[in-house]
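Page header: ASSEMBLY MODEL / four components / 470 residues total.
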Amino acid sequence: MPIQAVLASNRLLATLPIEDRLRMMENCESIEVRFAEVLSKPGEPILYAYFPASCVISSVMPSDSGVQLEVGLIGNEGMLGMPLMLGVDTAPFHSAIQCSGLVIRIATPLFLLEIERSLVLQKRLKSYLYVSIRQLAQTATCNRFHEVLQRLARLLLMIRDRTHSDEFHITQELLAHMLGVRRVGVTKAAGSLQHEKFISYSRGEVKIHNVVGLESVSCRCYNADKEIYDHIMNG
Amino acid sequence: MPIQAVLASNRLLATLPIEDRLRMMENCESIEVRFAEVLSKPGEPILYAYFPASCVISSVMPSDSGVQLEVGLIGNEGMLGMPLMLGVDTAPFHSAIQCSGLVIRIATPLFLLEIERSLVLQKRLKSYLYVSIRQLAQTATCNRFHEVLQRLARLLLMIRDRTHSDEFHITQELLAHMLGVRRVGVTKAAGSLQHEKFISYSRGEVKIHNVVGLESVSCRCYNADKEIYDHIMNG
DNA sequence: TGCCTTATGTTGGTCAGCGTACAGATTCGG
DNA sequence: CCGAATCTGTACGCTGACCAACATAAGGCA
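Prediction written out in full:
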């Protein structure tokens, strides 16, 4: 797969002016990443910025005890490495591959150079950062007020949007970590969704059968997220 | 109170080079704001950027039902109006005065101009934005995993830091909104803190007697927040 | 084939926080 | 001085999620 095709499959890079995209092409490389591969650990230096083409990255907040909580889910609509834009070169979260696929990466110094050069890139990254913050706030209230079933439905829909597929690999254990609940809680909620025939799954292979059904179960946070993204990035 | 003295009382502005500060002086005005005064509503245009001198601003995320959740607490260590830096001129949250005092405000177009002109201001605002994001993520996990007593202690300490005072006015009702819990839950937790002689209060007048005690009750999120701020802003 | 690892399902006791409702208590304004 | 508004305290049943432990099931691998 030629690099320009890969570049185009990330929505932040796809709409860059041709000259900016040509420069990016020279500085980027497209690599294949597999499930569970770790891209950054809290406190460690950020070596690359990552733009998912066909993979999904999950950023989780490390906590005192073993508990975790997802603070970001990044597909080809976004990127990993926002701190670089803010003059920080240390990773705040633990980010790992959640769905295997292709990712475009660019070394930190080159990335910073590209930002300086391309006003369009700058603008798009700023917009995306704003969206990320809004979504983080949305997730915070969602985690506080909504119950596991709703939040699981929302999360599955979000993964679907980012993988562009109705089937993906994710275990209940992992979902539990992302939602910040026990595995047992996910088992119950997932069982309920399967019973309703909205989804089916077996040993980590999840299939979504009824998107509308899932949307009706999930909280409005899911739609709120999408509306913000569309409004800011396409509006 | 002369404007330059007010400027110096906001930590983001205090350390600007002299020429930048002089320019700011011309474009800023210092106004007095009182409890419950609303500075911005979600969806409405951002007319000013606000830099607290001696007041405290609280930003809350509006939710579907009546429930609310605080996503930001801004004292003289920060500012309100970050979206402007990201090219967005619409307010995402509901922001209101939590403690009366002085605030420096600058009209949006002038603020954008100042950012362009002053690299130091730019850098400090970027750093602060990064800190805000980290704190938002911290609050998200705190809300998820820690119980009301811990979170109340943390919130009281945060207000103390931002008012620079051991006494301030805040009702249990308001605390409940900020924490996203019922008023009854705050009554119980606050009663417990008062019983321990860490605080005392009556009809919204809260006094903190034992900071160390409060810190021992609160979760580590409080310290984590401070460490991030110090590390990024002063480090 | 059979063991081992991984993934999923179930149960039962416990508890923090919810919803609701009501009861003092203090301050304020007329 | 008295009603009204505001703030704080208490009670009770309910429930979603917690903790811990165990049971089944499905692939991987020797």
